[in-house]
Amino acid sequence: MPEEDQPDPYSVALLLDFDGTLVEIADHPGRVVIPEDIRSAINSLHKATDGALAVISGRPIAELDAFLSPLRLPLAGVHGLEIRGPDGRLQTHDYEHAALDRLIEAARIFERGRSGLLVETKPGSVAFHYRQAPALEPDVRAFAAEMARSTPGAQLMHGKMVAELRLGDRNKAHAVDHLMELPPFAGRQPWFFGDDVTDEDAFERVNHMGGRTFKIGPGDSEAAGRFADTAAFHRWLVSMARACADANDMQGGHQTKGGNRGGLGEHAPSHNLGSMK
Ligand SMILES: O=P(O)(O)OC[C@H]1O[C@H](O[C@H]2O[C@H](CO)[C@@H](O)[C@H](O)[C@H]2O)[C@H](O)[C@@H](O)[C@@H]1O
């Protein structure tokens, strides 16, 4: 890995997508599992960066908390509609609740008799998962497009085996903007990691901010860097966390600039931080 691809925990903010990035894609949204070494690496890197690590996901914050427990991290949920900053304060962007009720009602009717279709309802959003019935894709896309046309303020997004209708005019770029204005994120270089088309808004924004962007897996992307798959990203994340822990041990776990980060010391070489392969 080139030296410039090795983050210095003192100066970067790590922004991580959840599905396909921190967890492997599963056949059902409720069946994802966060590997213990990844939970532990996230915890170490959250400390090493003085708290400048956040998860930015399409899932609601309550679900992310449940999967990540006992970690309690800065989070952006439902593609930026919900944000919980480092101080623990939750902010929710407004949307028309009556419009969501109408979307849910129509979705439930559409779902009837379509075996394998999963309708997921979230604050400000309805998602139609067809992973268990891929033949439904054209039908789902046509229905979701029609609902988007007939619902003022609805945005249609296509993710991995899912079509999603969102209200509230937010996307992951807004989440990046919001978090990067807050300490300890402010003033750091954002590094964003994601696997899906729903991460593209954030890739563009982070590129524009002079940050680093990494796409996980195949597919066209605005991201400048790439990991072959989720497993490759996990190896890199774990090696980076280990390097931070080793650097901290070398310092005897002493207080470093900004507190006891459990991270690399001010003068530690950045090439300790592992490889992307
Ligand atoms: O922004 P993310 O953290 O990547 O979340 C995107 C969506 O992830 C979930 O759906 C996806 O993952 C499921 C589990 O692996 C998979 O079964 C599904 O096909 C994928 O689309 C989640 O259910 C959605 O709410 C998120 O928006």
From TrEMBL:
Source domain of life: Bacteria
- Compositional bias of type Gly residues: which residue ranges? 255-265
Keyword list (alphabetical) reads: Hydrolase, Magnesium, Metal-binding
Which purpose does this protein serve, as stated in its record? Removes the phosphate from trehalose 6-phosphate to produce free trehalose.
Q: GO MF terms on file? A: metal ion binding; trehalose-phosphatase activity
Q: Which GO terms describe its biological process?
A: trehalose biosynthetic process
Q: What is this protein called?
A: Trehalose 6-phosphate phosphatase
UniProt cross-references to InterPro entries, sorted A to Z: HAD-like_sf, HAD-SF_hydro_IIB, HAD_sf, OTSB-like, Trehalose_PPase
Which pathway, per its entry? Glycan biosynthesis; trehalose biosynthesis
User: Member of which family?
Assistant: Belongs to the trehalose phosphatase family.
Identify the Pfam families for this entry: Trehalose_PPase
Catalyzed reactions per annotation: alpha,alpha-trehalose 6-phosphate + H2O = alpha,alpha-trehalose + phosphate
Give the matching Gene3D superfamilies. HAD superfamily/HAD-like, Trehalose-6-phosphate phosphatase related protein, domain 2
In short, the EC number is 3.1.3.12
Q: What class of enzyme is it?
A: hydrolase
